[in-house]
């Protein structure tokens, strides 16, 4: 049984296989890939793209999807072993995951960071509880540590524009927000771009470092694929010569050390990091702009960037369908 909840479940070879199949099927659609199969989708957090793209993959492949919103028509779920369940969580994943596995062929799970800090996100407790107790393959729809399907769609988008991602200079830049957001998306872009051999430059203000374990993993992929990774606190330095600018907001490294008011003030103090056309002018002439969406216009990214022809954000979201169709098929082939 093959779970894919983190890029390490694929490795650079798996990333390559899934992307190659996604590209091929984008050119020539396959026949019915999932006839009679059911994907169960468990959402602890909201979604527009992930929800519709996974369901579309199943419906267009001749299968179907059952969507559960935890806490909205479905019992709130406990994942901690040994928990005394005397609060609002009525059901434990020890039962819920194997029970759901009786009804569906695969399980997708979306569960953001619980806000317990980067160390807890590293452990990724909820998605790993599904891995432990489900008896069907589990696919991540974004968890605390990673959003692998987003990373795959990001790389496919780069590949389509530039032909290859080998040694492609790309900048992952931190962007401002009104609240501290999870690090799953920046982690996944870093890991996927490194696994695809990109020259990744990461720019963020001091205090927004990504977890050392994520950085070490990305470094290992870059080493294996001929890519490279550099980190800077100067956005302009990263942008010079970049062929793509990937903007994403994320919270401070030691989020737990700040009061909510302090975090808001800290985020506001870096409003100059919002990408504008001036930001894009520092990158290569043909640079593409990427963002996972949803994006808060004129807080995280200026209208003039999102509305500019260089913006690939809608194509990037559209590629979620293509990488997920390929990924679910790959997982099934690995499980047999
Ligand atoms: N799945 C894509 C991004 C999801 C999430 N964004 C958000 O929660 C945005 C919420 C807001 O803007 O209020 C994140 O950053 O990981
Ligand atoms: N990018 C992404 O995962 O979007 P949703 O949160 O809308 O699914």
UniProtKB/TrEMBL annotation:
<comment type="pathway">
    <text>Amino-acid biosynthesis; L-arginine biosynthesis.</text>
</comment>
<dbReference type="Pfam" id="PF02729">
    <property type="entry name" value="OTCace_N"/>
</dbReference>
<dbReference type="GO" id="GO:0016597">
    <property type="term" value="F:amino acid binding"/>
</dbReference>
<dbReference type="InterPro" id="IPR043696">
    <property type="entry name" value="ArgF'-like"/>
</dbReference>
<dbReference type="InterPro" id="IPR036901">
    <property type="entry name" value="Asp/Orn_carbamoylTrfase_sf"/>
</dbReference>
<keyword id="KW-0028">Amino-acid biosynthesis</keyword>
<feature type="binding site">
    <location>
        <position position="296"/>
    </location>
    <ligand>
        <name>N(2)-succinyl-L-ornithine</name>
    </ligand>
</feature>
<dbReference type="InterPro" id="IPR006130">
    <property type="entry name" value="Asp/Orn_carbamoylTrfase"/>
</dbReference>
<comment type="subunit">
    <text>Homotrimer.</text>
</comment>
<feature type="binding site" description="in other chain">
    <location>
        <begin position="292"/>
        <end position="293"/>
    </location>
    <ligand>
        <name>carbamoyl phosphate</name>
    </ligand>
</feature>
<keyword id="KW-0055">Arginine biosynthesis</keyword>
<protein>
    <recommendedName>
        <fullName>N-succinylornithine carbamoyltransferase</fullName>
        <ecNumber>2.1.3.11</ecNumber>
    </recommendedName>
</protein>
<dbReference type="InterPro" id="IPR006132">
    <property type="entry name" value="Asp/Orn_carbamoyltranf_P-bd"/>
</dbReference>
<feature type="binding site">
    <location>
        <position position="177"/>
    </location>
    <ligand>
        <name>N(2)-succinyl-L-ornithine</name>
    </ligand>
</feature>
<comment type="similarity">
    <text>Belongs to the aspartate/ornithine carbamoyltransferase superfamily. SOTCase family.</text>
</comment>
<dbReference type="GO" id="GO:0019240">
    <property type="term" value="P:citrulline biosynthetic process"/>
</dbReference>
<comment type="function">
    <text>Catalyzes the transfer of the carbamoyl group from carbamoyl phosphate to the delta-amino group of N(2)-succinyl-L-ornithine to produce N(2)-succinyl-L-citrulline. Is essential for arginine biosynthesis.</text>
</comment>
<feature type="binding site">
    <location>
        <position position="75"/>
    </location>
    <ligand>
        <name>carbamoyl phosphate</name>
    </ligand>
</feature>
<feature type="binding site" description="in other chain">
    <location>
        <position position="320"/>
    </location>
    <ligand>
        <name>carbamoyl phosphate</name>
    </ligand>
</feature>
<feature type="binding site" description="in other chain">
    <location>
        <begin position="147"/>
        <end position="150"/>
    </location>
    <ligand>
        <name>carbamoyl phosphate</name>
    </ligand>
</feature>
<feature type="binding site">
    <location>
        <position position="248"/>
    </location>
    <ligand>
        <name>N(2)-succinyl-L-ornithine</name>
    </ligand>
</feature>
<feature type="domain" description="Aspartate/ornithine carbamoyltransferase carbamoyl-P binding">
    <location>
        <begin position="2"/>
        <end position="160"/>
    </location>
</feature>
<feature type="domain" description="Aspartate/ornithine carbamoyltransferase Asp/Orn-binding">
    <location>
        <begin position="185"/>
        <end position="331"/>
    </location>
</feature>
<feature type="binding site" description="in other chain">
    <location>
        <begin position="47"/>
        <end position="50"/>
    </location>
    <ligand>
        <name>carbamoyl phosphate</name>
    </ligand>
</feature>
<feature type="binding site">
    <location>
        <position position="142"/>
    </location>
    <ligand>
        <name>N(2)-succinyl-L-ornithine</name>
    </ligand>
</feature>
<dbReference type="GO" id="GO:0042450">
    <property type="term" value="P:L-arginine biosynthetic process via ornithine"/>
</dbReference>
<dbReference type="GO" id="GO:0004585">
    <property type="term" value="F:ornithine carbamoyltransferase activity"/>
</dbReference>
<dbReference type="Pfam" id="PF00185">
    <property type="entry name" value="OTCace"/>
</dbReference>
<dbReference type="InterPro" id="IPR006131">
    <property type="entry name" value="Asp_carbamoyltransf_Asp/Orn-bd"/>
</dbReference>
<keyword id="KW-0808">Transferase</keyword>
<feature type="binding site" description="in other chain">
    <location>
        <position position="110"/>
    </location>
    <ligand>
        <name>carbamoyl phosphate</name>
    </ligand>
</feature>
């Amino acid at each position: 049984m093959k779970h894919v909840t983190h890029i390490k479940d694929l490795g650079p070879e798996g990333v390559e296989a899934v992307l190659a199949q996604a590209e091929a099927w984008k050119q020539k659609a396959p026949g019915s890939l999932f006839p009679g199969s059911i994907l169960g989708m468990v959402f602890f957090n909201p979604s527009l793209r992930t929800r519709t793209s996974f369901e579309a993959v199943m419906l267009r492949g001749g299968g179907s999807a059952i969507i559960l919103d935890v806490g909205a028509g479905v019992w709130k779920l406990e994942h901690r072993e040994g928990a005394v369940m005397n609060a609002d969580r009525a059901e434990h994943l020890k039962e819920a995951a194997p029970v759901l596995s009786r009804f569906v062929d695969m399980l997708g799970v979306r569960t953001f960071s619980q806000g317990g800090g980067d160390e807890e996100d590293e452990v990724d407790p909820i998605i790993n509880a599904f891995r432990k107790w489900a008896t069907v393959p589990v696919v991540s729809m974004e968890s605390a540590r990673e959003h692998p399907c987003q990373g795959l769609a990001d790389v496919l988008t780069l590949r389509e524009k530039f032909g290859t991602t080998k040694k492609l200079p790309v900048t992952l830049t931190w962007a401002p927000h009104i609240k501290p957001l999870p690090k799953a998306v920046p982690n996944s872009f870093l890991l996927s771009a490194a696994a695809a051999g990109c020259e990744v430059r990461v720019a963020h203000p001091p205090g927004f470092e990504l977890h050392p374990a994520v950085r070490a993993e990305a470094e290992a992929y870059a080493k294996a694929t001929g890519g490279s990774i550099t980190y800077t606190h100067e956005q302009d330095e990263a942008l010079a010569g970049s062929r793509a600018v990937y903007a994403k907001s994320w919270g401070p490294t030691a989020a737990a050390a700040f009061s909510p008011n302090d975090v808001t003030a800290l985020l506001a103090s870096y409003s100059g990091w919002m990408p504008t056309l001036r930001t894009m002018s520092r990158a290569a002439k043909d640079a593409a702009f990427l963002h996972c969406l949803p994006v808060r216009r004129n807080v995280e990214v200026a209208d003039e960037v999102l509305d500019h022809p260089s913006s690939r954000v809608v194509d990037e979201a559209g590629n979620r369908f293509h990488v997920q169709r390929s990924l679910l098929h790959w997982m099934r082939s690995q499980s047999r």
